[in-house]
Amino acid sequence: MHPIRYFQPWTMWRRHDLQPTYDVVIVGGGAHGLAIAYELAKRGITKVAILEKNYIGAGGSGRNTTIIRANYRTPEGVAFYKQALRLYEHLAQELDYNLLFSQQGHLTLAHAERAVNVAHERAEVNRLLGVDSRVIYPDEIRKLCPQLDLSDRPAFPIMAALYHPPGGVIRHDAVVWAYARQADRMGVEIHQGVEVTGVKVDGGKVTGVSTSAGDVSAPVVVSATAGWTSEIARMAGIRVPITTHPLQAFVTEPLKPFLHAILVSATLHVYVSQTDRGEVLVGSEIEPYSSYAQDSTLNFLEVTAEHTLELLPFLSRVKVMRAWGGLCDVSPDYSPIMGTTEVEGFLIDGGWGTYGFKATPIVGVTMAELIHTGAVPELIAPFALDRFWKRELVSEIAAAAVSH
Q1: In which order are the strands placed within the sheet that holds 214-217?
Q2: Counting CB atoms within 10 angstroms of each CB, which of 72, 79, 92, 124 has the fewest?
Q3: pLDDT by residue (tens digit) across 17-63?
Q4: Residue-wise pLDDT tens digits, 124-165
Q5: Closest CA to 24 of 182, 136, 189
């Protein structure tokens, strides 16, 4: 008889005992925290702990709507997201994992003369910085999406659209898993179910964190916690100008593929895409109130469904399958806050609003470069925390908010 052999279950990353000391502690096990850890490991910094109070990707990374684009309005934003998009285009090969990336095109619909003018402004900025983006009109829009109601029947007829061909979608949980797997293979420790309860500061320098599993010492602590950024910063004695708002979305029952572009309407506060499973994914603007609630609401479903039917009337008989919410950390100028703070060694990666997932690869590269060299990369210099009291804002509201 052959002896019975018992095998350990296969896992994508290992479990570790929390050590008392690390070179870098990253608070938040979402796509950003994992990308930073992976890029640090590439640079030879592997004594890194990722501390996630829930499970990997439980926050915004697992609740976002997967849209990738670079057609922002400010020169600083366009340059930053242009690099993010370029990295995304090759990320599956680098991480050796199928991320289901599809560059199907992104349409920001214009329903008024002012919206058309803004589209032209964004297109000019995009093209000057090497991003493929142009304004198109109903005849061309109809070819890209024949299901759209391009008549004059809707309350807000479609007059034009900003067309961004490289825009697309990528599987959000796959990005999380791929980064986690590679970071683990390179020596990074991923700790799930470990909540940070305090940030230790001595003489203006960070010295570590207190957690639900004990105290940890580290000369560098990175907050990559999205909607919880203001809470973690407060533990370090830092006030950041961020408010947290819920953002909701829903999906319908699966349909045969029909929508081969992402649709966005700031006027109707809605964006629509179709997933790889055939579901029609619909999202909206952030809720106007500040809250940490992540439940879906009936008001959101009613209003968003109504506005979606303004664009795609044939969906009126399609069933809604599920809805969810997430948290968005919104800064006053709708641009992120990245880099150093007044506490030496305490770094912030936050203020992403509705578009943090789009930035994941370049966040990893630039934040790791900052930690490794001590110098602030040129790409993220405009997004420093001190811009708010220097009055050097990067106003991205024209291309942010509902414009996923």
Answers
A1: 196-202, 205-211, 214-217
A2: 124
A3: 999 999 999 999 999 999 999 999 999 999 999 999 999 999 999 99
A4: 999 999 999 999 999 999 999 999 999 999 999 999 999 999
A5: 189
Rounded CA-CA distance 198/212 in Å is: 10
Q: Which residue, 51, 114, 389, is CA-closest to 238? A: 389
Q: Helix (H, G, I), strand (E, B), or coil: what is residue 16?
A: coil
Radius of gyration of the chain (CA): 22
CA dist 269 and 402 (Å) reads: 6
pTM above 0.90, yes or no: yes
Alpha carbon distance 316, 320 (integer Å): 10
Amino acid at 336: P
Strand-strand pairing, 262-265 and 106-110: parallel
Residue 5 has pLDDT above 70, yes or no: no
What are the structure tokens assigned to 233, written together?
């910063």
Query: Is the domain 24-64+173-241+333-399 a CATH 3.40.50.460 member?
Result: no
How is the chain split into domains, by residue range?
24-64+173-241+333-399, 102-166+243-330
3-class state of residue 3 by DSSP: coil
pLDDT at 7 over 90: no
Residue 398: is its pLDDT beyond 90?
A: no
Mean confidence (pLDDT) of the chain: 94
Q: What is the pLDDT of residues 277-330, one digit of tens each?
A: 999 999 998 998 999 998 899 999 999 999 999 999 999 999 999 999 999 999
In 149-301, which ranges are E strands? 160-164, 168-169, 189-192, 196-202, 205-211, 214-217, 220-223, 243-252, 262-265, 270-274, 280-284
The enclosing H or E element of 23 equals: none
Q: Which CATH architecture has domain 102-166+243-330?
A: 2-Layer Sandwich (3.30)
The pLDDT of residue 397? 83
Same fold for the domain at 24-64+173-241+333-399 and the one at 102-166+243-330?
no
For the stretch 81-116, what's the b/e string if a residue is b when 16 or more beta carbons lie within 10 angstroms of its beta carbon?
bbbbbebbbebbeebebebbbebbbbbbbbbeeebb
